[in-house]
# Entry
Amino acid sequence: MRKLLAVLLTLALLGTLMVSFAAAEELEPITLTVFRGDPGDQPYEDNKIYKKIEEEFGVKFEFEFLAGDLDETLGLKLQDLDDLPDLFDGGNSAETLIDAGALVNLLDYVNPEDTPNLWAHIEPQKNRIITKDEVTGEDVMYIIPNYGLGEGEQIVNSVGGPAFFIQKQVLAWAGYPEIHTLDEYFDLIEKFIAENPTNADGTPYIGFDILCEGWRHFCLINPVQHLMGRPNDGEVLVDVTKDDFPTETFINQPYAKAYYKKLNEEFKKGIISQDTFVMSYDQYIAQLSSGIVLGMFDQAWDFGDATNALLTDKKYENTYVALGLVYDEDDVAAEDMPEGWTIEEHYVNGSLPNLDRGFGISVSCKCPERIVAMWERMLDYDWQMLFNWGVEGEDYSVEDGRLTMTAEQYANTQDIEWQRHNKARAFFESSPKRQGYIMEGEFAGQCWEPGNQDEIVFGLMNDYDKDFLSHYGYSKFGDFVNPPIELAPYGEAWQIDKADIQKDYDDYLRIQDEQLPGIIMASDDEFDAKWDTFVNDITPSADIYANFMHEQILKLVAAYYGEE
Amino acid sequence: MTTTNYQNIKVRKHYDVVFPIVNTIILILLMFVTLYPVINTVAYSLNDGTDALKGGISLWPRVFSTQSYQAILSDPAVYQAAWISASKTIIITLLNLFWTSMLAYTLTRKEYVLRKVITTMLVLTMYVNAGLIPNYLLITKVLHLNKSYWVYIIPTMFSCFNMIVLRTYIAGLPEALVESARIDGAGDIRIFWQIIFPLCKPVLATVALFVAVGSWNSWFDTHLYNASKTELHSLQYLLKMKLATTQASANAAKASVDALANSASSKTTPVTIRCAITVISTVPILVVYPFLQKYFVTGMVLGSVKG
Amino acid sequence: MTYDSRGTARYHSPKKKSFFQRLCSQWQLALMSVPIFLYVLLFNYAPMWGWINAFKDYGNRKLVARGITPFNGLDNFKWLFSRPDFFVAIRNTLAMSIINLVFGTVSAVLLAVLLNEVRQKMFKKTVQTVTYLPHFLSMVIVVAMAQNIFASNGPINDLLLGLGIVKQPVFWLGEGKHFWWLVGIINVWKEVGWGTIIYISAMTAIDPALYEAAAIDGAGRFQKILHVTLPGIKSTFVILLIMNIGHLMEAGFEIQYLLGNGLVANYSRTIDIFVLEYGTQNMDFGVATAAGIFKSVVAIILLVGANFISKRLGEETLV
# Structure
């Protein structure tokens, strides 16, 4: 007991010492406290990148990662504005930090003269990034987006976002057809199952999975907007061709009924499994990883683990291609369409700045200038290379003027343990960074991110995929969908903060979660009645939500054009 | 009359023979049912992470691998955290036994004038909860216990539920024990420590188990108050963090979706990490349990004390 | 507060002592209890000022973050009681907690009795250790197993189909009417061994002489269980029952949250989940606190009721 007390006292003393160091003069070494709004691993003491940061900037970091619920954690931290972490990343709820006045206005430090790098970095998107304070009306920028400020042409090597996915073997079996409509998609799956009811092990195939566990319910409730041809606006359909941006919720419209009717038919045919609506995420990943699910609507990042499992087993034919499906002309009657609407497939949107995501500097930070100056310097070529590619010779090499990695080196970059020694992930992920193409210098025209570099995307691609693409005459999987359209002036509508109508929005989602599964499982004579009940129940909250979104979209559009 | 009695006894004898057999069968079946999830968890924890994603493992790993354990145990921080967890568990258990048993004794004394008010106020604490924020502010802004080891100890020195369990047990002890001691001139403090406390071994063992398990398994206190102090992280918090990062790594591509790996590298996955964590945090309890178990399996000979 | 009846009976009795005199004479008892009592007051009652949040508007996260939380009277309570699904949540909570209470108590007592009858010490210890192990599995793991076991093509359905009890697989996880019972079964599976510990430790206090006396009277095993073992744990049983009746408003949320889905939402949504969905998740501490107060009030009513009934029946009381 006494020994323990002694240890504890020593620890406490050490703690006080560290704090007094942190508070010392600016040029002195400092320790910045950092909060990350998502889970993460503490870097090891010997981490080579953090060592370099310490050498050049005299800065050490003390990281805290999210362990519990994000909103709850932020709510508690905000109880004391005098004791906030210096670098504060609010994860997906960073708006809370801004609203609470927890972050400093970075425009006090970022300007064309003092920080040319940072300014040039945000300049192309400054009408989205710099906003007016709701209360004072002054120009504010609390967070420099951590992603989405790419340089050069947009890179679409594959579809990373929402799409209808299908196993490569199904397309190969049918002789590599082009699939563009919902009907073609389900026809193909039905035919495939009719001839191949089970895989080689005798396990029956599942034609189509609908995941709807918790926040992943987008697999159930989002597809209709895409079938109508729009990229991801969350739960509204916006007509961007009109000046007043008409906005409506799509889920309660007649054209949505067509999709759920189709799912209802497929469910009765047994193409969709009976258990799909009671399936947990783990079960879903288990099914995908076993290679028995032929298709689903999802976002690529949502099943990355399953893809990895299939690749590990070398079941390349069971991995997925993203398709951009749209409604056929005869799926939806003309009078059911929004006025003047034409369907044109656009699953991939223009490059979107990840607004309000990344580090802000808290009001209790003693040295905001120093952090901004550090970020400014870090946008230089040498630091960006170090963060993105690592150390030449160790982590990557240059061959004939091209940046490249071996398969092993690239696999390392994905390995969490390796990252803890060799990557400054916890810091860099939330900091301003260069993406897209390197614009000048000896590597101009090559990619900032190794994962986009041709040598890695194509150089490390497996032979099955190469052969698969060659049948279509495509060079990359991104070619299965149309090239990106121009980003709408309001960005993507799912980014809009719904705090003002939160309870109605919750109702709106909840009714979909509770009723759509029943509609898909309904018998023929129940279907119409269930659909009508659904439309009836959801319309009050849907109207409130749609009106709110329309107002917000108009505000964003005005702000975007305001200064041009 | 005689025949009836005889028959009764025969029937009883018959039961006495059959009952142990039936009982044994029931208990073995029950063990089988409850052992399944445990073995299943162990099997998953010893399986290759990526392979385990496919599910369908039952009592034996499909692709044997210790990578989940390696991923957890290779981190030096685990050992510091285990020390923090073990030390706080021991301290809290001792403090709880001390305070809780003493209080429980006083609340069995019918003549104690504060008995009713204290009992009522304590029992109510089990049913009212101020909510997270007021509690948080009390610890951080009033008591300034955050960012210190003491936040593990001071707020958890007492539990009303355990006090009630102890009180019920003590109330069941023969009143004569106390009265004869009082006649001998002993005060309540002496009566409690010398006579009552030693008789409470089985229930003290039970309460010790409850407190120790609760403390050992807690992570929320670290999350709320000590998350920024890596040297004060508890084991459960660290393990919870490991699980969270494994889960997040599948979604890491969310931000830079194009970077989704074309090269597959075998990794730990949430499915196996979760199971390995369960095993790692349960084993110490399994090791300690027999020491406590002997107190409440053996039973106690009260008769002699009463004598 | 009850005073010694002998002391208060006589007006001029020299025995009559004031409250403080009595307290002084009981200084040893006070020393053993008052410090920890003050501690409980600080840690459990001081934060109760937080209940004031139930009467404030926390509805808009943006305003809350700016520190704008005006008093709104009883609006939070009114909002709760204007929601039909709040009443559904109360129904679900009570249904599941009653099922849990009955299943949990009966199974734990039963197992404790069976274990108590085992003479073979090694076997007894083994059974005990094995059965309490599932308590340490996280709910996530247990629910994941249950989802596989109760799936349409899972072992339970295979068994029922194989035995010809059903013709179609039962949709255990997708039909509301099964949900409460599934929760009950899973909870028993996970907690039966753990719940036994407290009864087994209570059984150790039973005087072995009672068993001997019963044996001399010619009692068989069943009579011994009925007349010695069960009465021996009755006070523990009654006290736990009263405590648990007070907890009927707590059916938990983890298992329902993990096992539930859109199809069974009307049966799986407990008060805690309701609060999570509408309160905590949106940082609406007003609604969350109001629901908390409601739960506390009901809990106290139930507790006082159970305590009163127990007292009238001449049984053990909690307070």
About this structure: The mean pLDDT of chain A is 91. The CA atoms of residues 289 and 306 of chain A lie 4 Å apart. The interface with chain C takes residues 69, 71-72, 75, 78, 95-96, 99-101, 135, 212-213, 217, 273-275, 277-280, 282-283, 497, 499-500, 502-503, 506, 510, 513-518 of chain A (CB under 8 Å).
